[in-house]
Amino acid sequence: MSDQARNATAKSAGTVTLGELTVRRLGFGAMRLTGAGVWGPPKDRAGALAVLRRAVELGVDFIDTADSYGPEISEDLIAEALSPYPKNVVIATKGGWIRPGPGLWSHDATPDHLRKAVEGSLKRLRLECIDLYQLHIPDPIVSLEASLGMLAQLQSEGKIRSIGLSNVTREHIERARKIVPAVSVQNRYSFADREWDYVVDYCEQNGIVFIPWFPLGAGKVAQQTLQQIAAARGAMPMQIALAWLLQRSPLMLPIPGTSSLEHLQENMLGGSLRLTEEEFAQLADVPQLTFSR
Question: 0.70 cut: is pTM over it?
Answer without folding.
Answer: yes
